[in-house]
Amino acid sequence: MKKLWISILVVLVVFPMMFQSSVKAATPISIIIDGVRLSTDQAPVMVNGRTMVPLRAIFEAFNATIKWNQKAQTVTATKDDTTIMLKIGSKTATINNKAVTLDVPGLNLKGRTMVPTRFVSEALGHEVGWNPKTQVVTITTSASNVGNAGPVSNVVAQDVSDFGDGRDLQVSFTRAANESLVDHYRVLIVKSGNILNLSSAQTITSYNYSTVLPTGTNPSIQLTSASRTVDGDSIKSNQAYVAYVLTVGKGSNASALSSGSSTMTLVNKTVAAINNVQVNDISDYGDGRDLSVSFNKLSDESKVSSYRIFVVKATNYSNFNLATANNVTSANYTLVSKTGNNITQILSSGARDVDGALVKTGVSYRVFVMAIDSSNAANNVLSSVSSAITLSNIGVSNLSVSDVNNYNDGRDLRVSFTHATDETYISQYRILVVPTSYYSSFSLAEANNISSAYYTAVSTTGTTTNQVLTSSTRDVRGALIKNGVNYKVYILSIGSSNTGNVLSSPSSVITLLNDSSVSIVSNLSVSDVNDYGDGRDLRVSFTHPTDETYISQYRIMVVPTSYYSSFSLAEANNVSSSNYTSVSTSGSSTSQVLNSSTRDVLGASIKNGTSYRVYVLSIGSGIYWDSNVLSSASSVITLLNDSSIKAVTNLSVSDVNDYGDGRDLKVSFSHATDETYISQYRIMVVPTSYYSSFSLSEANNVSSSNYTSVSTSGNSTSQVLESSARDVRGNLIKDGTSYKVYVLSIGSGNYAGPNALSWESSVITLSTTKSPVISVTNVTYKEDNGRILISFVKSANESNISEYRVLVVPSKQGFGSADAIEVRSSYYTSVTPNGTNPSIFTATRDVNGDSIVKGVKYKVYVLAVANNSGVQNGGLSNSTEEFEI
Q1: Strands 649-655 and 665-670: what pairing?
Q2: How does residue 25 score in pLDDT terms, banded at 50, 70 and 90?
Q3: Does an H or E element contain 820, and which?
Q4: Is 8's pLDDT higher than 50?
Q5: Does the pLDDT of residue 751 top 60, yes or no?
Q6: DSSP code at position 106
Q7: pLDDT above 80: residue 768
Q8: In the 3-class helix/strand/coil scheme, how is 495-527 assigned residue by residue?
Q9: What is the pLDDT of residues 250-285, one digit of tens each?
Q10: CA 268 to CA 237: how far, in whole Å?
């Protein structure tokens, strides 16, 4: 008895450690004591092959007593002369006041102490039985094992399916009156007209009956395809049968035979089962959308209302049958309407398996399809099972974000995640920072289109990533990351080869904040102001924080760019006092030229020809003495004797024409006195709405298509721009827009980098004073041996027209006045105005330079082009009708 109680306590201790991984979520477990179901407020569970039941419920069923001490966390169970006491969480218990040692402590689960049923029952002298198929524990007390088991009653046989074998036959009956004396039941199928009695029933071989174990409830069993009659014949359609049940008693308890059921004949009511169920992994969402199911429809769908797709864990599929399928809740299958065609269905993100778990990667599944009979659920048809499939995923996991610094930029944000288990088809990961105001509409399609400047790329090296972003990191909308904005972070796994990209779930929301009272400076800028060849050439400017209460000073630190990538707050804190410049907190801003002895953070004197970045370290005071904060880096600066590269002077602009484009703008300036190290000048037209932010660094980055180059020949330049001239934003120059003009001097040779930007010109707004050209009318065409004869009525006023251009345009191509002006001269036919209505043969090429060919439809336009007395703000005719040669 002592060993038995020790076993009980050991299982109690093992239970909490095993519960999560070992509990089976299948058919509910029932406890039957002397034929009566045990009712418990905490359902029995299976742990490592043992049935666990609430301690109080089973002991009270055996007339034992239970005492629980909440303060001491102890439970005491007493039955006759046996007393056991255990303490939750302790490895020591007592049995009749004798201490025993347990392997692991016990567990109070939801206020109930769980114990193993078999040990409790057998400890008290009772017999225990277990039916793994029905998940039923039967307990027979010693006082109940006397008497006759008795026959069952109400035997009913039903036709429930259409397989043409024993699976079509379901037998139900009312259990024996004293089921505690029953060892098992035998379901016997007899051909109608044959006689069966108790004596012959007891001699039937086990191959020719179906066994049902007592469960405490009235059984209902669907036979199998292998089920046979008492004569050994297969059960089949179009044969009349009667069902009997033989009650077999325990030990010496007598057996009893029931009355026969009503005669019934199995009839196939629907067509054959669904076939060719195929499954495929088609995406990488990590849910049901990855799973495509296809199958052949039934040849006769006249009685079919719909189909149901069941996803079954591969470990459980052998137990899945028609009866199980009929009982699956609607939330756990996918409903498909009949279409009259073979069906292919991609499941949804919310698709679940038949156990109620979301379909996901890494789990092996098999799929069944059931055809639903519109009139009788008993006639539903279940397919054979598909092959096994395990969905794979290239997505990441364990995504988390944290605020780690106080730079007020991307360096404050740390992103951590676990890489995909299989990176075979992954080329890289992309960290995407999304403002929560944009979060609701963010999707995989949008993630795929994010510019490379707006994400952080991470290689597949290693199994995890733990990365602090950079100061220049931007969110997916292109804005720099900063404090006070709510963000969520996503990881986009980039598939290689033919594998699609996968977007992770979002991280939790993070709002970056400065968590100390020591703030960084802002508006940090640097400039080359002299030509001493030392620190006196370098001016550093910045704005102080609004609150300097806990800031004692600022330190200007000059860092060579060769050292820039590794410079950090920790290194800034360790820079020697001889290698930085101290600045007091007086005033709201600082603009300081360094001195001749200033050194960089490595201790080298500042000099020409070396590239630097500048940082400012805010030094904490008082309670924040150890909370220094480092600014972002300045732009790169290389100090040079810039007397070799000078800006132009005497810059002026004027409105000289009325074309409505760059030809209206004349730019004049004096060249630099010494052009030895100047390769060219660049005229840059800047809209005044953009003027306030235009600088040398921006001028250096203007695209070549957005400025006008001027050679260094001569002492001055006075140049009218071209019709195609564009402003620095890439827009064509036009009337009605206000501009300022700059000229950038471009260094050459040893001075290829330090370009010089002029002062801006005065504001100019181009306006029209000349008359616009008038379009021609009545443009017609005629085809002649592959050539196109064009006629039109000349403009009403040809005095301000230099020529007509005949333009052949593919009809599917959009075409307007701006397009007409840009057509190359070799791709149109020019006609000189002569006071008459022209009629000409046009060229054999269209406006794109392609040959005019058969089978392509075209339209013809005529553009009237302004001379110096007209303005080109129109002049394009209507097109001819569409035609082909």
Answers
A1: antiparallel
A2: very low
A3: helix 817-822
A4: no
A5: no
A6: B
A7: no
A8: ECCCCCCEECCCCCCEECCCCCCCCCCEEEEEE
A9: 876 778 899 999 999 987 655 456 888 999 887 767
A10: 7
Residue 684's Cβ-side half-sphere holds a number of Cα atoms within 13 Å equal to 30
- The CA distance from 447 to 441, in Å, is 11
CB 386 within 8 A of CB 367: yes
| pLDDT of amino acid 738 | 93
Residues 6+ apart with CB under 8 A from 687: 727, 729, 731, 737, 738, 739
In the block, which residue shows the tokens 């009511």?
269
Exposed, middle or buried by CB within 10 Å (0-12, 13-18, 19+), for 652? Answer: middle
Under the banding of pLDDT at 50, 70 and 90, the label for residue 13 is very low
Provide mean pLDDT across the span 691-708: 86
Phi, psi angles (nearest 5°) of residue 706 = -115, 20
Residues composing the chain: 885
Q: How far is CA 317 from CA 137, 314, 719, in A?
A: 24, 5, 84
CA 410 to chain centre: 22
Residues 666 and 779: their CA atoms lie apart, in Å, by: 36
Indicate if the pLDDT at residue 208 is higher than 60. Answer: yes
* Residue 227: φ, ψ to 5°: -60, 145
Q: Return the H-helix or E-strand segment holding 805.
A: strand 801-810
Task: Enumerate the β-bridge partners of residue 399.
Answer: none
- The conformation of residue 770, written as its DSSP 8-state character, comes to S
Half-sphere exposure of 842 (CA within 13 A, CB side): 32
C-alpha span between 569 and 81 (Å, rounded): 74
**Alpha-carbon gap, residue 695 to 701, rounded angstroms:** 10
Residue 119 pLDDT more than 80? no
> SS3 for 664?
helix
Identify the three-state secondary structure at position 716: strand
Cβ neighbours of 5 (radius 10 Å): 23
- For β-strands 801-810 and 829-831, DSSP reports them as antiparallel
SS3 assignment, position 879: coil
Residues 6 or more apart in contact with residue 257 via CB below 8 angstroms: 151, 196, 197, 198, 201, 244, 245, 246, 247
Token readout for 732 is 């064509």
Q: What is the DSSP letter of 178?
A: T
Q: Is 324 left (phi over 0), alpha (psi -120 to 50) or beta?
A: alpha
Q: Is 404 helix (H, G, I), strand (E, B) or coil?
A: coil
Query: Quick one: which of 109, 136, 126 has its CA closest to 11?
Result: 109
| Residue 181 C-beta-side C-alpha neighbours within 13 Å | 20
Whole-prediction pTM? 0.28
Cα within 13 Å of Cα(439), Cβ side: 16
* Cβ 404 vs Cβ 413: under 8 Å: yes
Query: Which residue type, as a one-letter code, is found at position 433?
Result: V
Query: What does the alpha-carbon distance between residue 265 and residue 235 come to, in Å, rounded to a whole number?
Result: 10
| pLDDT one-digit tens code per residue, 376-413 | 676 788 888 999 988 876 678 889 998 888 777 899 89
E strand segments, 258-315? 264-265, 275-281, 291-296, 304-313
CA 425 to chain centroid, in Å, comes to: 17
Tell me the mean pLDDT in the region 95-110: 68
- Which tops the pLDDT comparison, 1 or 122? 122
Q: Give yes or no for a contact between 279 and 351, defined as CB atoms under 8 angstroms apart.
A: no
Contacts of 398 (CB under 8 A, 6+ apart): 416, 417, 418, 464
Residue 84 clears pLDDT 50, i.e. is over it: yes
Residue identified by tokens 């020809």 is 609
**Structural contact between residues 579 and 602, judged by C-beta atoms closer than 8 angstroms:** yes
Tokens of 121: 């029952």
Find, among 106, 77, 98, 78, the residue nearest to 11 by Cα. Answer: 106
Quote the longest CA-to-CA distance of the chain.
132
Top pLDDT among 110 and 297 is at 297
Whole-angstrom Cα distance, residue 102 to residue 471?
A: 58
